[in-house]
Amino acid sequence: MSRDWTKSFFRSPIFDPGASEAVDAAPREVAFLWKVLRLKKGSRVLDMPCGTGRHALLLARRGALVLGVDASAEYLRRARAAARGLANARFVKGDMRRVHLGDEFDAAVNLWTSFGYFDRPRDDLKVLRGAARALKPGGFFLIDLVDYAAIKRRRRAKNWADREDGSFVLEEAFFTGGRDPKVVNEWIVLRPGRRPLRSRFVVRGYDRRRLFAALRRAGLEPIRTWGSLTGAPRRKSSTRLVVLSRRGRSRFR
Question: Are residues 133 and 167 in the same domain?
Answer without folding.
Answer: no
